[in-house]
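**Sequence, structure tokens**
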Amino acid sequence: MSQRLLLIDGYNMMWRTKAFGKSLDASLEEARAELVRRIKAYRSRKALFSTIVIVFDGSSNRGGAKECGDGRVRIRFSAYGESADDLIRALVKRYASRYRVTVASDDNYVRNNARVYGAGIVSCADLVGLVNGFPKSEPADDDGKDMDAATAADINESMKKIWRIT
């Protein structure tokens, strides 16, 4: 399991960091394009991850989930009625046995579900820092939702029981 997969919670990353403020002011489409451009540049400079998937909500997409990209950096839009959070959870579950998975999100639902399957977690601000060549970046807001390790372990155990994971 030497290949590494990075799953990025796209809209969460754009809204939770200051790096996309100007692009978001212009349009959501421009901000998405800016995120994809930065991630592709990062991937070409540093091949730490064999595959990177940026996941966006595709709530207006009446068909199935849509995917595009060049193989190394892929963009996924969730299917109608499916959230990006649920798609990320499904992707982590699907690929956890084949890849060393890392999830970039500040959303506690996404982070906690990823931990259940053994995925690594990186904050949006830290990933922006890596992409920009800095060790860390500052988040746009600190919502105080980080939890202590004991609480996270309790949640993980509860979720494992619910999903019958051994």
User: Anything to note?
Assistant: Residues 61-65, 136-144 have pLDDT under 50 and may be disordered. The longest helix spans residues 28-45.
